[in-house]
Please model this.
Amino acid sequence: MAKLPVEKMRELERRFGEIEARMSAGPAADVYVKLASEYSELQPVVKTIREYEKALAEVADLEVLLADKSTDKDMRDLAEAELPEMSERIDGLEKDMQILLLPKDAADEKSAIVEIRAGTGGSEAALFAGNLFRMYERFASTKGWKVEILSASEGEAGGFKEIIATITGRGVFSKLKFESGVHRVQRVPETEASGRIHTSAATVAVLPEAEEIDIEIRAEDIRIDTMRASGAGGQHVNTTDSAVRITHLPTGLIVTSSEKSQHQNRAKAMQVLRSRLYDIERQKVDSERSADRKSQVGSGDRSERIRTYNFPQGRVTDHRINLTLYKLDRMIEGDIDEMVDALIADYQAGQLAQLGEQH
Model:
């Protein structure tokens, strides 16, 4: 049996009870929202703790029955049959508890900004970037998340040279954070008469959406330029000076947004800038913390080739965890749960192994 931190479990149960009591006392709306957020975070942990304690109590009762010489044969047989089942259940609950009690990434519950850029491969890479965006868009809709495009530059033959979107919902970042990296596609382009397979690529970056409390941007650290927005080829060109380019002077980061409203553009560009700066901070902390970390999945290196989509064979391979799934058509339609869950499980296994090494 795993050694669980009993003190920590007691503390979580106590805190959960305290939150329940404060919520039922009818606090102010802003306080209630904060309490409700912590409540929903603790609920699965406390539910598992209670199930675990109940299972331990049941095993203790069965052992008392078996130790009692006066227990009749039928009851004894029943208890003997039940004991291994209960022990198995306790083992399962202990594994669940270990994962639930792992140190949490502070950004896991956040919404995310997803940036997809076509890499090598010209028009085919832009079409693939479009496929990836639609894959995440459909995945988001199955989860009830909201997708909003912040900026997009279309490819000549369709798809996108670059597209940036927010995906809003609870826990978006925890599900999508392992999508960052280079995605490679192998397929026969429609324009290819000889049926030759082409390889092209697109880069995905998933950033936790930062709020003002996460990162402070000082007015003197940014330069805001307004430019004339140009519509996509052949479309009505918006002639007002509405496009916004924000330069973050300390880092040299540049963010642009060119929707119709200048006010909206400024807000959207600030949203992306804040999230990129927050991501830089997180990467810095992560690299300091993980100088000796072996976890490949969590490295988040954007230049690393992470996955190959092979259309002729209908397969998708994630190179970090050596997982190949023969359901490319379904994955491109947004059915990526199996891949996402496997990446999360691999990361958690790595965390558990590290904790084991520390103890």
Q: What stands out?
A: Confidence is low (pLDDT under 50) at residues 231-240, 291-300. DSSP finds eight helices and eleven strands in the chain. The two ends are 15 Å apart (CA to CA). Residues 64 and 71 are 10 Å apart (CA to CA).
